[in-house]
Amino acid sequence: MVRPLLALAILALPHSGAAEEFFTLKGHGGPIMGIAVSPNDQIATASFDNAVGLWSDTGVPAWHDGHEAAVNTVHFAHGSMVSGADDFTVRQWPGGTVLGRHQGKVMGIDHSQNLIASASWDGSIGLWPLTAGTPARFLTGHDAGVNAVAFSGDGARLYSASSDGTLRLWDVKAGTEIRQILGHGFGINEMVLNETDGWIAYGAVDGVTRIIDADTGAQIADFSLQRRPILSLALSPDRSQLAVGDGEGYIMVIDTGAWRITRDFRATRRGPVWALAFSRDGTNIHAGGLDPVMYSWPVATMDAHDRMGQQAHSFLRPPEDMENGERQFQRKCSICHSLTESSARRAGPTLFGVFGRQAGTVSDYTYSDTLAGSDIIWTEDSIDALFDLGPDHYIPGSKMPMQRIVNPEDRDDLITYLRQATR
Q1: Which of 67, 144, 257, 371 could form a disulfide with 360 if both were Cys (CB 3.0 to 4.6 A apart)?
Q2: Are 384 and 394 in contact (CB under 8 A)?
Q3: What is the pLDDT of residues 288-325, one digit of tens each?
């Protein structure tokens, strides 16, 4: 249930950033996966570091920690924030109250007058009530993960986009599918509904960006530039600009009145554009990617400012520049774990001094219940077993992502490197 005090806590804070100025927001410990802008232009960011950041106009974040895995999406709703993550939960902030839980990653969120809707890779759409005593429900029918949802203005209908390549329309009250609007053939990652002007924009795995009629599915415009996949979409508040981010690091800005491309900006030196949002006046576009930094460019002068990717990422170093043990660490561990004394807001605790340490005991990291009470001591044998079996089998219930290092020589080389690097 949304409480009035939550609305006061959010709306009393000032907005971040100035219109028509280039700026960055720094503080996360991992890539920026989602961005939202409040009615008073305050920015919220969702990150791979398991946190939601709420930014003041001085660039100082209020951290909202509680998710146990990467946060993929954040959304302002009824004066609070709602986020979804790889830990399968939908949470409300401040406080981190769990509104609902899926059986797969939560990738998208929207709200109506009395519901929060969540899109999940378990193939369902969660409907979480904002009033006490009303049961939660699930809409099912997609044949693969659901990536995006959008309510109609009156909240009676819900649009969804899925990895099964379809856009579908649902009757919220009845909990049934009204019709399939589109069958694309490739997975659809992103969707924007412009109900006022009667169209839907969608972006797909194969690099397609199309605008279709919201009722008939008829194509209105196609802006596919063969850059794949499409990973983010954002519509400006006045509906005049549509921004598209892709896996090759570009941001394309489309004039929705003339249906023409006005900007095609190489936003990052390397890597994807995972998140996009416009400022409330539409003059700036905020973006997130591999950097633990949110960038904001004035749309009119994007080319005149720095691109993302100024920071050197160790996991992107050429393999031939590293010995095998370091290469295993950089590819499998470095995005979550630091080697310094501080955990540095990473998705996992620092590995500094890891050998001989009891699991779950680093003071500046919040562990899952599984590891917080674990009797595991990190040794060569336990680290070898961790990557031989995979974290999901060796310590089920922990925050660690599912991965294995199958080759025993690779595990040996990693352990040898960690022995030296964590002292």
Answers
A1: 371
A2: no
A3: 999 999 999 999 999 999 999 765 555 556 767 789 99
From the list 403, 345, 373, 396, the residue with the least C-alpha distance to 71 is: 345
Q: How distant is the alpha carbon of residue 403 from its chain centre? A: 20
**CATH code, residues 314-421:** 1.10.760.10
Measured between alpha carbons, how far is 272 from 81 in angstroms, rounded to an integer? 25
User: What is the rounded CA–CA span in Å between residue 278 and residue 297?
Assistant: 10
Which comes out higher in pLDDT, residue 391 or 97?
97
What angle separates helix 408-421 from helix 380-389, to the nearest 10 degrees? 140
> Other CB atoms closer than 10 Å to residue 231's CB: what's the count?
21
* Pick from 269, 305, 264: nearest CA to 290: 269
Question: What residue ranges do the domains of the chain occupy?
Answer: 4-304, 314-421
Which amino acid appears at position 166 of this protein? T
Q: Which tokens belong to 186? A: 């490739």
What is the rounded distance in angstroms from the CA atom of residue 3 to the CA atom of residue 15? Answer: 22
In this model, does residue 227 exceed pLDDT 80? yes
For the domain 4-304, what is the CATH superfamily, name and number?
YVTN repeat-like/Quinoprotein amine dehydrogenase (2.130.10.10)
